[in-house]
């Protein structure tokens, strides 16, 4: 089973040379720490930075340099800063190759719910709505089940939707899955996790074809 760092490491393998990548709040912010050497990637944050680097070491934080989740970050040489209007022009104009988001629920047809739990106060929907409506390649980083052990990969989302039919791939603490027209296609399983474990933890339709390899991190 993977922890949050393991999920981030696996998603980092999906990042290709020359990509512009938006990192959502939570697990996705860790991805910048694990991109493989030898490729050039530009990480974008919707609060107005292009060229984010890894998290700073303790004692080297700059309180004025933060991401959309208000975490302190570093800026790589050549990074640029701009206002929200410019940032969302990049997002809505489809200039971002890959968007990595967290989620509370994902349905088998690729719907995502990640911004509101009814009855709980939220500051607002943020930029998630823009990201999921504009990005062509969306990977979700999430836990496979909630604290009660109930599946978060569902036939149909129960929470208010952020986007419809937009998720392409999901990396959880148990598996890597591709969203297809027929449901969640199981691509890889986490170390020590069996296909049966993943079946039990998945409410939505799970497609299993041949031997499912274990993830390589």
Key attributes of the depicted protein:
single chain, 217 residues, alpha/beta, three-stranded mixed beta sheet, 13 strands, 24% strand
Class inferred from helices and paired strands: alpha/beta
Give helix and strand order, one letter per element, not per position: HEEEEHEEEHEEEEEHE
Approximate helicity band: 10-25%
| Amount of beta strand | 15-25%
Q: First CA to last CA: what distance?
A: 12 Å
* Count of individual helical segments: 4
Mean pLDDT: 92
Name the strands of the widest sheet in spatial order: 4-3-2-1-5-8-10-11-12-13
Oligomeric nature of the chains: single chain
Radius of gyration: 17 Å
Write down the overall geometry: globular
Low-confidence stretches: none
Describe it.
By secondary structure, the chain is an alpha/beta fold. It has four helices and 13 strands. The chain has helices spanning 4-12, 84-92, 128-134, 195-201; strands spanning 20-23, 42-45, 49-52, 75-81, 98-102, 105-107, 112-113, 138-141, 153-154, 169-171, 175-180, 183-189, 206-207. It has a ten-stranded mixed beta sheet with strand order 4-3-2-1-5-8-10-11-12-13. The longest helix is centred in the N-terminal third of the chain and has 9 residues, at 4-12. The radius of gyration is 17 Å and the shape is globular. The relative contact order is 0.16.
